[in-house]
Structures are given as structure tokens and as C-alpha cells.
What we know:
Low-confidence stretches: 1-6
Distance between the termini: 50 Å
CATH topology of the largest domain: Thrombin, subunit H
Strand content: 15-25%
Number of helices: 25
CATH architecture of the largest domain: Beta Barrel
CATH class of the largest domain: Mainly Beta
Amino acid sequence: MGTSARADEGMWTFDAFPSAKVAAAYGFRPDAAFLDHIRKSSLRIAGGCSASFVSSQGLVMTNHHCTLDCTSQLSTPEHNYVEQGFYAKTQSDEAKCPGFELDRLDVIEDVTKTVQSATAGKTGRALVDALHAKESALSIGCGRSEAIRCDVVSLYHGGIYKLYHYKRYTDVRLAFTPEYAVAQFGGDPDNFNFPRFDYDCSFVRAYEGGNPAVTPDYLHWSPNGSKAGDLVFVSGNPGATQRLLTVSELTYQRDVALPRTLPNLSELRGILERYQSEGAEQLRETKDSLFGLENSYKALFGREQALLDPAFFAKKVAEERAFRAAVAKRPDLAKTVGGDWDKLAAVERTKHELSYLNSYVANGPSSALFRYARTLVRLPVEKAKPDSQRLPEYSEANLVTLPQRLLAAVPVYSGPEEVGLAYWAKKMREDLGTDDPFVKEVLGAKSPDVWAHDVVAGTNLGDASVRKALYDGGSAGIAASTDTMIAFVLAIEPAARAARKQYEDRVTGPEGALEEALAKARFAVLGTSVYPDATFTARLSYGSVAGFTDGNGKAVAPYTTVGGLYGRATGSEPYALPQTWLTAQGSIDQNTAMDLASTNDIIGGNSGSPLVDKDGDVVGLIFDGNIFSLGGAYGYEPAQNRAVSVDSRAILAGLRSVYHADRLAAEIAP
Length: 670
């Protein structure tokens, strides 16, 4: 049928890992002890990255770009840690990251029958409400607290439901991060490419009760790294894949979603670059935002190119045709799901119809000030409802850490906020039309630029103490507020809630029900011989250290070296090395492996994942994929798709010879 996994393909759950396939391909069979140790040593960073414990004292390894928000928040015009790097020479110097959360998966519980019995026979709004109510009850029932998080995870698009029990760490402190120039060496030109020469690593520490967390499960450091052909594993939290989507769903992505999103990202990138050119402070305020935007653009562009590739798309069509034929041969399945592909196609047409309404009216702008205001406005309203009737983001389970995120003293810069809001308002007016009632409600007689300036100038929500006062004041405090952002959210709240309900009734609910029905049919045909789509939950992939042949037929070796880093440096951005590395050139071994490529199946969200060998020892740190990995959202191509890591030998050499971070080096590699 073309849907079974090929060698090295798959983002597998820990409780359904294909150890027999690994043994057949590589002669090593991961047992339960190996899998449990890797899982307990691995972490998820709330917000979109992965990480791992690398010492018994709560020391955590991840990517530089996964702690960039923290580094930016700790920076000031006088101490720009993004540009200068940060090293805590003593434990007391480790700096707390505002709003940072680490989650470790401790227990996996199958709740499929419980969830599916609650949603059986329901569609649309009834399905959404029933699913939310059951998820809420299960999450609360597992014993939620500030140190425990429980999430109901849908796998195989509703074919299986698991309750994941997490140990949560909310006191996280920065211990080390290098300069931006070497962590993101090569910038956008080298992004999603290989050879690479990035030192994209960072170390934070989890604390409990004011002391470093005691973490007996952690990954040891390999003294010798890896070599070509070695079996390696990646433990992380891949964000999202769409490999099990139907052809109609992929067609929507190819013909509607991506062609709309990419030009907008490109335009916004130009706006931010122009803003950065105004001065050093403007550059500091938006450097991490622009990095994220450029990364998103390149990743989504790669996805679009994969779907536009006739051969690739034809393969997806053939897979679906084979699946439909298998269903047709089973009268029981044909009766229950035979028409569901056509029903899904109709839902995708509705999704197209409602896409602008959902984007602009239901979701609103991508703005920190707006998110604060919406949370403050909705929080007292939602808390007054029974938990099962709340919007999911305000469930009792999520309210445990919501105050921490809402009230963290994170700097908010008015300039970038104004730029982003003005762009959103401009695109909203373009896409919805000048005469649209929502556009008139937002802008009135103002231009997007004037509206954005006024709403930012009249809000104080960037001040954590102001947010705290509104949070404590509840509905009465919100009603009495004269804050312009609060007023904006209140003004659009009826339309926003109505748009969200309409989208859930006509798209989210029906789509979920149909996907679940097809997932059950897929199980009936294939079982768990295929892996579920990624859901930003714990997965383990396997592969080997390997080069590839690029698009020009040139063989690309699996390793780069520190000497190659210096050879690539030009002194000009984005190939300018910081002074620390220039000073250390004579003292660091130029033959040390810098970055490496492997066949592991990864996607966004795997950033910060450890690369480990069959002994479970760290041999690298995932930070990217090559250009051929960008279609990985929809399928894995084994010949050229490569994961890219910082080599463990380079990380240790940098700590010792460049930064003289002897305290950390001794902790991870005694």
C-alpha cells in the first residue's frame, strides 16, 4: 500500500518502538531498560523545542535558538547576552529564565476506549465539546499540580488516545549560551543546508525548591563521539507532521494555506529588516523574531516545494488509492468509512471558505500585548464556567502554569509590537475588505499605522505589575480598565468567539471525526506497523551517521570540522566569528568534528534533541535538517533527507578551549 515505514523512517512513540526492525537493520535491539532510560532523560521545552538532562544535578542541554527568548529577556542595552553570550561561572550566577518550562514524560496511559466511548456517534460541536470534556476530566483526574502535568494525546488522528503524565520544571536558569554569531554561523544562507559549522548549543539547569533538581536519569557524554555508519537515536518532540493526511487535505495545504502564508512571511521579513536598520537597539529587539520568521519561511517553502513536486504528490495519491482499495475489500469498513474521503474533501472546501475568518477574527494578531489582553479578558469569564465547558486553554490543568506565563517579567518592546500590529491590520483590511464589519470595528476611520500606534501607546500591559493588578482584579478590574489593548480585545470579543465557534462547528469537529474514522480503518488494515503523525510529544527515531549526494550529484561527507569553521569565516556577517573563537584558534584542535549529518527522521520541534549511540551516550545535539528534509512534514525521503547535529566533541572542545567553562565541562564529562 506504500504506507509502511522504510528503513530509518519513523517518529516512533516509546511504547511502540520497533526494536525488532532496528535489530534487523543494525544488529542492536533496544530493550525496555534502554528505552525507559532515554525517555526519562529527555525533556520537552514548552513552546516548541526539545532537551535532555546531561548530569545528575539537573543540567539540561538544548539548542542556542531554543533559549534565545530567555537570553533576549535577560539582555539589556548594557548587557546584550544574545551578541556576547552568557556563562555562569558559579551556580549562584545562573540566571532564571522567565516563563520557561521543562516537561519530562514519566507515564504513558492508554485511554482510547474511555475517550472514544465519550465521542462515539458525535459530530461537529457535540464532538468538540465531548472530547474537551473527557480530556479535561482525564487531565484533572491524574493528580495535577505545579509539578505535574497531564495531557491527553491523540495519535493516528484519533485512532489511539494516550494520557501522558509529565514531571514539570518551572524554575529553569540559564547556565551557558554562546554568542549568536557562532551559534547561528552562516545565518539564513546556510539554514537548512549541509555542510554546516554551527555551535548551536545551550545549557540551562532545572531547579526545585531553590536547589538544582536531582536527576538520576541523565545522558552520559560519549568520550569518542561517533563515526560514519554508526547507529544513532534521536529522542525529542517533533512538532507536527501531516503524513497521514488525505489527498484533499494535502491539496488544501498546497493550493491555499501555503500560497497565502509564504508571501506574508516574506513581506513581514522585509518590514523587520527595515526596522532593524534603524539602529542597534532595534536590531537587538527583533533579532530573535527575525531569526524565527526566516526559519519558518524556509521550512514552509520546502513543504510547498514537496507538494508541488509531481512525483512526490503522485506517491501520496497512489498511497491513498491503495488504502481506499483495501477498505473497499472489507465490507465492514466500506460501509462505515467508504464515503469519508469525499466528506473530508467537502470539509476542506469549508476550511477554505472560513480561513480568513478564522485567521483574523477568531485568532487575532500575533502580538505579546494582544495575547496578554485576551488572556486577562477571557480568564475570569472562563473560570466561572464548569471545567468541561471552558475553552481548552483555560482548563484547570492549564491554569496551573498560566499565571507564571502571564505574569513573568518579560520585556515587551513597543517598536516591534507597533510594526507587527500595523502589518496585521493592513493584511486584515486587504483580505477581508475595507467594508467588512470586523475591519470597521477594528480600524474605524484610522489607517493601520495610526491604529497600531494608538493601541500600543495607550497600553501598559508590557508592565508585569499592571498585568498582576488586572489578574487580581478579575472581571471588575477588566471592566474598569481604560487600557487600549484591553478595550480592543473587549470590542472584538463577541465576533472572535462567534468565529471560533463557527470554525469548530464546521471544520474542526467534522474534520476530527472523519480523520478518526479513517484512522480506525487504517488500524484495521495496518495496525501499528506505521508510526503516528508527530504531535509535539515524545518520540524516538533511529538512523545512522551518513552523508548524501546533493542536487548536483556531489557527494557530501557526514562530518565537518572546526578547521572548516575557521576556513569558512570571512569576517563579515553572517560568516563573522566572535572574538572568543578567533582568540582560541591556535588552542583548539582543528580536526575536531564540528557538525554531522545522520539519517534520523526529524521535523521542527526536534531542535535541542540529543543524538545518542547504542550505549545511550550523547554523540551530538540536533539543531536542523538539510534542504532535503523540508518535505518531511509530508513524507520521508531516505536517500537525501538528513538530520544535522552539533558534534558532542565540538561542544566539549568549545566549552574547554574557547569559553574556559570548566565548571560545566567537568559536570558533563568528568
